[in-house]
Predict the structure.
Amino acid sequence: MNIIQHVANLLIRSVFHADPASWPWTWLVQAVVIGIAAFLAFAFVAIFAGPVSWIERRIAGRIQSRIGPNRVGPQGVLQWLADGVKCWLKEDLVPAAADRPLFLAAPYLVFTGMFGAFVVLPFGAQVVAADLNVGILYLLAITSLVVVGLLMAGWGSNSKWALFGGVRSAAQLVSYEVPSAFSLLCVVLLAGTLSTQGIVAAQGGWPWDWFIFRNPFMFAAFFLYFTAAIAEGNRTPFDLPEAESEIVAGYNIEYSGMRFLFFLFAEWANIWIMAAISAFAFLGGWQIPGIAPEQIAATKGWEFVGWQALSWTIFLVKATFLVFVVIQIRWTLPRLRVDQLMITCWKYLVPLSMLMVLGVLVLLALVPEGGGADTILRGAMVGLGLAVVLVSALRVRRTFRVDREHYREMEGRDLWYPPYRLP
Amino acid sequence: MTPAEIRERVSAACPGAVEEFQADLLDPVLRLRPDRLREVCRFLRDDPGLRLHYLRLVTGIDRPAAADSETPGGIDVVYHLWSYELRHGCQLRVRLDRANPVVETVSDLWPDANWYERECFDLLGVTFAGHPGLTRLLMPADWVGHPLRKDYARPERYHGLPTSRATVLAEGRAAEVAPAMHDTKAQPIEGYLRLNMGPHHPATHGVINFLLETDGEILKKATPDVGYLHRGIEKLAEQVGYVGTMPYTDRVDYLGAMFTNHGWALAVEKLLGVEVPRRAEFCRVIASELNRIASHLISTGSLAMDLGAFTPFLHWIRERETINDIMERICGARLTYNYLRFGGVSRDIDPETLDKIKHWIDHFEPMMDEFDRLISSNEIFVRRLAGVAVISPADAIAYGLVGPNLRASGVAWDTRRDEPYSIYPEFAFDVVTGRAVHGTLGDAYDRYDCRLREIKESLKILRQAMAAIPEGEARVKVPRPKPAANEVYARVEGPRGECGFYVVSDGTEKPYRARFRTGSFTAMTIIEHLSPGLMLADLVALIGSLDVIAPEIDR
Amino acid sequence: MTASAVPVLLVLLVAVLFAALFLVLSYWLGPRRRDPLKESPYECGIPARGTVQIRFFVRFFLVALFFLIFDLEAVFLYPWVLVFRSSLESGAAAFALGEMGVFLAILVTGFVYVWRKGGLEWQ
């Protein structure tokens, strides 16, 4: 039973004094509860996408030896609000030559596609708007709505740069849809269900219970999915649809004010969505180490709320970590060329992801879950994961040390260096 | 081979073609019969003993008949030729009828003549018979008159826009611009997507327009259309005199103002016969090399930014900021320096500034490694540049590429070493050439790589210069320049290659004709040649790797 | 199934309403000063020439076709995977695997064919 039915039943019992199972208006109350939940989800999206934009800009500033937004509110945390209000006060321009219906409808589609994905994201043990039994398929479908929106924007603007951007984004998004679908197929293979909550439930709190460390193929599938997800989110190094140095701004070039903000909003929310999908499909989602989902569901009152909050926090931390990775990638790498982009997808990611499905399939048939071989495999994969993390941490540390020594050497010299640091 | 010897050979091969040998000029000139020009040019280019493969400059000079003399007026077209292999050059001149100036084109012999001749047609009205597309280059296609003619009268209005400051001030904001002004000068290919890249495009490095004919992402043709930044500095030089031109040269190349300063100073000092004190030469070299580093930082950084990596650009901007601070201490300006004076520099470099430069170099050298780690060896970056827009050495010379672009194609030519000026022979430094880092010589990556390595060479020169800087005056007093009638061509090695100044003096305080030869102008001519078959993103990489900046093209 | 679709539809409705609300607000709050130059399409600062609706790179069309083929294949695999799990328990895994193997073999052959034909090349 998910949290919405829970709340609806509570309401029906306490306010209407009826039995929810037989009462004819149960669906209406549920609908109202869902509406409120959707509103809360929206607030969450807004509150999340906004700060992500601020965080990204501050991180970018740090990476690039500059400050970044720090004027609105303490350290600029309210910058995103100011930007939003500013966009509200801007003129809503529609080019005279634009295909009006397409041009006007595109932001709706982009927004709805992005927003709709939140419905099935399993935020916590019982916190999910709708635990659809076709969750993953729904995710694949609803995020594709964004493609349609972008293509409409590109075509409807009746501007050549916008058309380039629209066509590029359509080609890119549909191409990378294939490897991401195959990679998620590996997850479904292991979980045996399409429901997002079911996928989380099939994993566990400890890293060796996460899908990513189940076997080498899952390990690879995670990286394939993450790469494809970055491409689907139009992020560097795959930000061709809005490559400002090539096609100026791409599909959103003719948009202004709030409509323009919708595209940006969708982009930032998309980072978070794909990080969340990676987190729940591969990294164990909200699972709390040492306590099974059934035990959480069995708790009552404040204890229930506490466990929910903890699971929620775990999920957020995992997803936010991946958001940081995406931001780091964005401010480090240059952009691919359009043919390289397509070749990367069709010649590498697609065959590789097919191979991963095959590998998982074979292992599933040969290595029974819970057996000795399975345990050894999981242990080895966790070790590998630790090694990857360790090696990158050591590299970062070495770079930092070199830099610190350099700054120490330069100390006291009349240069405007070292750069400003984040407090 | 000296110009006199070249003249002998030309006379022997094409008897009667040379009308006059002006040996008394600082740069001797062969005056040819206009109808024999092509014949002589072909000989000069193809003769194994001459091999003048590089057309440095084509200049038109209007010489109306003087009121008191009987000599008829005419329009001179002067060609500067050079041979990289044999290290000699010569100047050709043809004198054309002023009423109907026609001469045969040499654009099939030297491809970079294409734009030079268009410019000459545009500004002086010289018709080049046989030219493939003789249209205006810098001025709008429907402009009336040729601005560099001595009797040119500016039209009062152009499409309703007032052209004089007084009228603009009187009338207030200009009326709406008539679309005819934007008419470009390229022929469309039917059936393909026509697209304006520029003038306001993030990747064109200034207001340049590329008219693209594309089949989706793949280019059929990219035709550059320039002139958006044309301020007529050559015309201004004729009006403001030798001294007054110095600050204008800053605006010719705003990223390498020290070099345009230096070239102009060299040219005028040659005309005047002024010796520059040693300390001033050191000041010039130190400032120049700092400026070169700053320019290369912008160039390599913005190339990375064009390819989508924003961070390297800002790292380089950060380093350049310190150079700007140093420059401010040296000459009081951060971008348009106006530092050089005829006979020295405007002020001495104080010891404290020298210390600051040393500190900065100590800081900067490790930063080069950081930059390499960040971007130079990045797989995506390499794949975006390696093998893209390859320029062969022969093409590079024929299209008049200079500086890092030329050297990246494997032609080891550095004006500092090979046609030495100032005190550069005293310093030990390497001439970097393309080394085919990723398999193809002369690709976009080599051009990028050359610039980065040139920064290191500049650091070497800086260290040597700061160690050896002598005491003494930084400037000798030079009276208001009034050189006797003469002609000179002076060049320095700027960040975008040879930065040349061809000055014709006539005994007054103002140059009779001043002509600026810049690296970006010729670099633009090769883009049209290289563009078919490139992808849109490759064109961005090509423009970035050639390091063109708009004011240098348009002047 | 229909019951669980209700919340989804509701959420989508809320999303559209939100978008509309935001745009209406911006319609009221924003200035409205029409200007022919402002409403002309952006083409780097000069009037656009030629038309937009002209032949476009055929590669993009091919990509769309490949997507249709391979993404449908992937989506088709999803329900099969669910069945496969249960057949694994019932012991009919070999049969399910064999059937899917035939299906995949055909598609992989197609993929290899496209690759060999140069359908994935861009230059």
Observations:
- Chain B has a mean pLDDT of 85.
- Residues 38 and 114 of chain B are 14 Å apart (CA to CA).
- The two ends of chain B are 33 Å apart (CA to CA).
